[in-house]
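Standup notes
- DV: blocked on the single-chain target, sequence here:
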Amino acid sequence: MSSSKEIERKFWVSELPSFITALPFVTIKQGYLALEPKGREIRLRQKNDTYWLTVKTDGTLERSEYETPLSQQQFELLWPAVEKNIIHKTRYLLQKDKYAIEIDVYHQPLKGLIVAEVEFADKESAGTYTPESWMRKEITHLNFMKNKNLLQFQSFDQIRDLL
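- DV (later): unblocked, structure below
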């Protein structure tokens, strides 16, 4: 199991940048085993052909994350427990200067939602980061925009109205 502090800022992207088709990507399926409304989450995630069990603590800019790899058999054994708490997305990976930027393009029922996450080594770097021109609005501190909270929405239109 690995443990780390996750420091990231999140941005709503209104249109896919034109360069996105040239980026490497992974397909992600994630489901939630346990959710606390303002606290921890326990999720299963499949990224292409890798499988993970992850526990995240509460927080916006900074949170603790504990991850352990699973075999496909372990993942498939646990997957039925997520019931309908499932998100599907494609994650595009962009390295820009010293920043790792992940651009998540959500699939049904959230089709149309695009979020960019920028990861940082420390809070100081996060505070001095200037967003890319295609990053429309910062959503780091909008609790309803956490993946676990996106499960409450039936469509992207419901989210857009809140942005």
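- Follow-up: DSSP finds four helices and nine strands in the chain.
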